[in-house]
Write a structure and sequence with these properties.
This protein is an alpha+beta fold and 1031 residues long. It is built from 14 helices and 47 strands. The longest helix has 28 residues. The protein starts with 7 loop residues before the first helix and ends in a 15-residue tail after the last strand.
């Protein structure tokens, strides 16, 4: 034995010799000690004889009357397939068995019956340092065979019947052999310090027969692996030929098809067929590289005729394989362990070698050395060491996730139920950030795919080109990537095509049928105006809702997000050709390449332009208004867009992204002529709330500045102006009959001042609360020798509230608006105690935005009529005061009218007209405010039927719109006004400069002085306190 040779054949002989000797020992035991045949001693003679006794039999000597199975064996032999699997051959000299299903008569086993088992084995190394063996370590390798899990190979045909019975008994026999320790054998000893360790490679020593190959590895069939390798080879071939796909500058990508080596004295060109694999075991495979043609040249530039040409060579390489699965178990990738690759001469073939042995060895040696030292590393750098990769998520591409019912009803409404929904859905809504944009529209890729499905145009179902191509299509499918790119799949269920010649269809070529082809492309998403689209004159485009509503208006333009199909890049890795077979011959493979090149040409050069011509590559359309003074409330004056995601999503990792982290499209805009704060939206949350339905079309958000400040609170500021009451003294000498109460909107010094709302802390965590508060107090005091010492006072405070919910509740949003006015009169003289009279008026109503069907319905809930409390007087005070309840009834509006606010919110009903998808318009549902006060809606596909066009009424950007409350008092409608004691009294005119502002309440003193206390929320309101009188 030489240390530089494979020691596997020697090891096999050594191992089988051990089994032979152990078998002889077992036979000798039976021959010399027949009385020792017993259950206790069966381990000693197990290799020679085995019996299964009938139940209840105590005699140990086997006979046909007391045994179910009995056999005498020849010495077992081992045949190694590879470094992990071995065949155990059991040969039965004679024996019989009882098949109870056929009666109790014994059935004789055929003499010399050979049954083979396939088992795994491992090498366990024992290292010793016994000084008796020398001053060096000794090594003993143990071959440990797993007989308990051995698999029987097909049984020879001579065993006509009872096969299952025999196999069942032999399984017990294998258990006995393992219990007896016959599964552990010694490999070649290594006890000499002068002998180099011999390499033992069982895989290279064997030439497996056809029935030794495995059908699967890691539950992947050999056909699936070879189909994957054929696909890689087709991709490499298309790159190498560069007919339709631009030849990549990285030559390694087409090294699977051809390779050129330029070297002085030995230059050659290799042209490959598709590689294929045979499976040795659960850990090893043989990879065959078919060399279709090998040409040797005597110059480095490979010009002229080759000096030598060979064809149909085959190089066999043995390699370990390594599986890799993702944590979710969705993907499996099997790669070659190139660090352990070995050339297998017995599985390699070299046709056409010259009779000159030296020259033949030179040619073969050059190729083998190239494969071992260079080619495998080149494959690894090009990722061609991956022999199988599949992700089950690829199979869902193009298949709409929701059914019709789920898609129609959306998913946000389930958040309020609190069942089966994580807290993350509510947090996603509350934590959205708009970062200075006035409007954000977030569209899920699932919604885009459903829009493709909803397009009824025939070109998306069937299409043909002249007499050279026709196909039936499924809807386009899209998956978004970062950097405004996307993967787009064109799925053809069936069709026919002609091959190309000189880059055009060849009329002489026959029509070739195909089925279930799916082509993948990477495309860029861009934004353009309507005038920049080539489809701007298309009748189909002009029939779209976006064009019908906005396309012909002079005060706005349409901006579109679209797929740049003209520059689509074919992606072979995600394309599939279901009816392609594994490439066996290079000629067959090149024929498939020509079909692929043809279908790519038809799709990219003809079909995609046809889609663009009718605008079917448009993802969304947004009307953009030219700046002006009269714009609709939610009219955008500038927009941009981008693909939004937390992490970078590329064509290489898109399948590993979980559903709740999928990229989305965000269309960002500003109103009122404001510049865009940025070209991108900073990441805050995912924006798409799928809740427990697993699907949502998307989300639209209107900034707090636009809806709450400019519209909602501005309209409700008019409520403040009509419900805020201010005491006005026109003649102090008339006492309380010289005082009236006016609304803020009617007060000469107040009506032009703003009555703004301000946010205040709310009692709960699920709402935003706004307050308007204003109070005024005056006291009139008389004192002195000529006057009656007396003090009169009036105190009036108004508090109005708006509460906006930040939690989704049954798909509805209820804006609660309420208010209260407290009026108190006081009188005191030097001889009497303080007397008072008081009354209040309060009101409350809700503006409800309820989700109904696929959209919302706006209504008001609760009474609009104010409620007046009965007047309360302190003892003896009734005759001294006017009735404060009547004073309130005279001044306060009869009814709170929120019609203008409701009309404003009506813009959210029906189809949303400020953003349009490709096919069916969106409607808004499930409104809610986030933590910043931005108004969010879930987008739903608008139901069928004519869309109701809400009026786009202008909203003033400055000042206050018309009052939502009828500015009429009861007195103004024929009610009884407060009578004046004297009709000829002159009322002193008070101006703002004459008033002293104090925090309410306040105390005043001084003879003959009239003082007013006036404060609003901006001044910092303190809780009201009783009026104090200074005497």
């Amino acid at each position: 034995m030489c240390s530089d040779e494979n020691g596997a054949p020697h090891a096999v002989r050594y191992l089988n010799s051990q089994l032979a000797v152990l078998h002889q020992n077992a036979q000798k035991c039976l021959a010399e000690h027949p009385q020792a045949v017993s259950g206790e001693n069966k381990h000693f003679y197990a290799l020679a004889e085995f019996a299964v006794l009938r139940p209840g039999v105590t005699s140990q000597a086997p006979s046909e009357s007391n045994t179910l199975f009995h056999a005498r064996f020849k010495a077992p032999t081992l045949e190694f397939i590879c470094d992990h699997d071995v065949l155990l051959h059991l040969t039965i000299e004679k024996g019989y068995f009882i098949d109870s299903s056929r009666g109790f008569a014994p059935t004789q086993l055929p003499a010399g019956l050979r049954i083979t088992y396939r088992a795994n084995f491992e090498i366990q190394r024992i290292i010793g340092n016994d000084p008796k063996l020398g001053r060096y370590s000794s090594v003993i390798d143990l071959v440990v065979i797993n007989l308990r899990n051995a698999i029987v190979l097909p049984v020879p045909p001579e065993l006509q019947s009872g096969r299952e019975t025999v196999i069942r008994y032999l399984e017990q026999y294998l258990d006995l052999l393992q219990d007896a320790g016959n599964h552990v054998l010694f490999s070649l000893p290594q006890f000499s310090q002068h002998t180099a360790s011999m390499e033992i490679d069982f895989s290279l020593a064997s030439c497996p027969e056809e029935h030794h190959w495995q059908d699967t590895i890691y539950d992947i069939s050999v056909d699936q692996i070879n189909a994957y390798l054929s696909s890689l080879w087709l991709k490499s071939t298309m790159l190498a030929e560069g007919v339709l796909i631009k030849r990549d500058t990285d030559w390694r990508l087409y090294c699977l098809t051809e390779y050129v080596r330029k070297e002085a004295g030995c230059s050659y060109r290799l042209r490959f067929g598709a590689p294929r694999v045979n499976i040795l075991c659960s850990k090893e495979v043989v990879v065959y590289f078919d060399i279709d043609e090998l040409e040797f040249f005597d110059n480095e530039d490979l010009t002229g005729e080759p000096t030598q040409t060979f064809k149909k060579w085959k190089i066999g390489m043995v390699m370990n394989v390594m599986p890799a699965r993702d944590p979710e178990g969705c993907s499996l990738t099997v790669t070659l362990d190139l660090t352990n690759a070995r050339y297998h001469h017995g599985l390699s073939t070299y046709e056409g070698l010259t009779s000159d042995e030296a020259l033949a060895n030179e040619y073969c040696g050059a190729v083998i050395t190239f494969f071992i030292e260079e080619y495998l590393q080149i494959l690894h750098s090009a990722r061609y060491h991956v022999i199988y990769s599949h992700d089950v998520r690829w199979e869902t591409v193009g298949k709409p996730k929701p059914d019709a019912g789920d898609e129609a009803e959306g998913s946000w409404w389930t958040i309020g139920l609190g069942e089966g929904v994580s807290a993350g859905s509510q947090e996603t809504i509350q934590r959205t950030k708009m970062y200075g944009f006035d409007q954000v529209v977030a569209i899920s890729q699932g919604s885009i795919n459903l829009q493709f499905s909803a397009v009824s145009h025939a070109i998306l179902r069937t299409w043909d080109f002249e007499q050279s191509f026709n196909a039936t299509f499924r809807p386009l499918a899209l998956h978004l990537l970062s950097d405004n790119r996307a993967l787009l799949w064109v799925h053809m269920t069936s069709g026919k095509l002609k091959a190309l010649k000189d880059g055009a269809p060849c009329a002489e070529e026959p029509l070739c049928e195909f089925q279930n082809w799916r082509l993948a492309f990477e495309v860029e998403l861009k934004m353009c105006t309507q005038g920049e689209l080539e489809c701007s004159s298309s009748p189909l485009y002009k029939a779209t809702p976006a064009y019908q509503r906005h396309g012909t208006q002079s005060d706005r333009i349409l901006k579109h997000v679209y797929l740049d199909l003209k520059n689509a890049e074919y992606i072979h890795d995600y394309s599939s050709y279901a009816d392609f077979q594994t490439v066996v011959r290079p000629a067959d493979g090149r024929a498939l390449v020509h079909k692929m090149e043809a279908v790519i040409w038809y799709i990219t050069q003809q079909y995609f332009p046809a889609l663009c011509k009718d605008g079917l590559n448009i993802i969304s359309s947004t009307p953009v208004w030219r700046s002006g003074t009269s714009l609709p409330s939610y009219a955008l004056t500038d927009v941009t867009f981008h693909v939004y995601s937390r992490a970078e999503i590329t064509r290489y990792n898109w399948a590993q992204v979980s559903a709740n982290m999928e990229p989305i499209i965000v269309v960002l805009g500003t109103t009122g002529g404001r510049e865009l704060p940025s070209q991108r939206l900073e990441y805050s949350t995912n924006w798409i709330v799928q809740a427990n339905k697993g699907f949502s079309h998307g989300t639209i958000s209107i900034a707090q500045r636009v809806f709450i400040e400019q519209r909602l609170l501005q309209l409700l500021a008019n409520v403040n102006a009509q419900t805020t009451l201010i005491p006005v003294m026109f003649n102090p000498m008339l006492g309380f009959h010289g005082v009236s109460i006016k609304r803020w909107a009617e007060h000469d010094q107040r009506k032009d001042r703003p009555s703004k709302w301000h946010i205040v802390p709310s009692e709960g965590a699920d709402c935003l609360k706004y307050l308007w508060e204003h109070c005024e107090e005056w006291q009139y005091k008389l004192s002195g020798s000529g006057e009656l010492d007396a003090a009169r006072g009036i105190y009036c405070i108004t508090r109005n509230y708006v509460e906006l919910p930040t939690a989704v509740k049954d798909g509805a949003l209820r804006i609660q608006v309420s208010g209260r006015v407290d009026l108190r009169l006081s009188f005191q003289t030097a001889d009497t105690k303080l007397t008072q009279a008081s009354s209040s008026v309060y009101w409350s109503t809700n503006v409800s935005i309820q989700t109904v069907g696929s959209g919302i319905k706006v209504s008001t809930i609760g009474s609009h009529n104010p409620v007046f409390t009965e007047a309360e007087f302190t003892e003896g005070g009734g005759a001294k005061f006017r009735n404060p309840r009547e004073m309130l009834r005279t001044a306060f509006p009869e009814k709170i009218n929120l019609d203008e606010l409701v009309q404003e919110i009506h813009a959210f009903e029906g189809a949303w007209e400020y953003f349009y998808p490709l096919a069916t318009p969106y409607s808004l549902a499930s409104p809610v405010f986030n933590d910043d006060g931005d108004l969010l809606f879930e987008l739903r596909r608008h139901n069928s039927g004519p869309a109701r066009h809400a009026p786009m009424t202008p909203a003033g950007r400055f000042g206050r719109p018309a009052s939502p409350i009828r500015p009429q008092s009861r007195a103004g409608r024929g009610g009884r006004a407060s009578p004046a004691p004297s009709a000829h009294r002159e009322y002193p005119q008070l101006h703002a400069d004459d008033q002293s502002a104090h925090h309410c309440p306040s105390a005043f003193s001084g003879g003959g002085q009239t003082s007013f206390g006036d404060s609003g929320i901006a001044g910092g309101i303190k809780a009201p306190a009783p009026i104090r009188t200074n005497v």
